[in-house]
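Archive maintenance. Older records in this collection stored only the sequence; we are now back-filling the structure field for every entry so that each record is complete. The fields below show one back-filled record exactly as it appears after the update. Entries are processed alphabetically, and Leucine-rich repeat-containing protein 3 is next in the queue.

ARCHIVE ENTRY
Title: Leucine-rich repeat-containing protein 3
Organism field: Pachyramphus minor
Length field: 234
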Amino acid sequence: QAFFCLLLCVPWGSSCPPSCQCTERAGAKAVLCSSRHLEEIPKDIPRDAVFLKLDANSITRIPSNAFRHLSHLEELDLSRNAIEKIDRAAFKGVAAGLRTLDLSSNRIRSIPKEALLALNAKLRLANNPWHCECALQEVLWEARLDPDSVQDITCHTAPREEYVGKPLLQVLDAGVNFCSVRQRTTDVAMFITMFGWFAMVIVYVICYVRHNREDTCKHVDYLKSLPSTQGHAE
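Back-filled structure field:
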């Protein structure tokens, strides 16, 4: 933040989005769109932007390929928005060079792990109404999270009430594994499905045997009712 305050306000002409302020210093180009009442990401962000601040707006979604043309982007601030949905390919095209990604203080409950695990950037995910689940656990273990904000990743909802309101890291340190819970749930569902199919097969076999037995009994009774050969000979 101090860096942005030190940047000189040098206009870039028509290449700068109308709702933003563009500055440049020592070749580091920044696009400052903080607190501009934006509801979506501007389409005309300069391709050579290195720093992009979109914080304190009303953005609700990060669509696929939203920053794909920004191959020089190193720092992206999306904090203090109303983001609820992040597409799987939201950060496609900037994964290699991005160093910092701030998604703190939004309305994010869940996020596709594919959207974050491809990044090398340091992530800030604090102060969101997270639903603690396997995908979030995998992000916590595998992504590069800002260590100063990890404790603020709190379970707003969870499979069990006792985890609600607790930092996710604390829950995991206690030995909880959301991924194994999901696996057990999947195994139980598969077992129930297989049992159901097996039961249907058994019922079908029983009905088939009964039906054949009834047909056989009817056929035997019919044969018994016919006049015998001996009776015809007399």
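Update note: The chain is about 35% helix and 15% strand. The two ends are 119 Å apart (CA to CA).
Entry marked complete.
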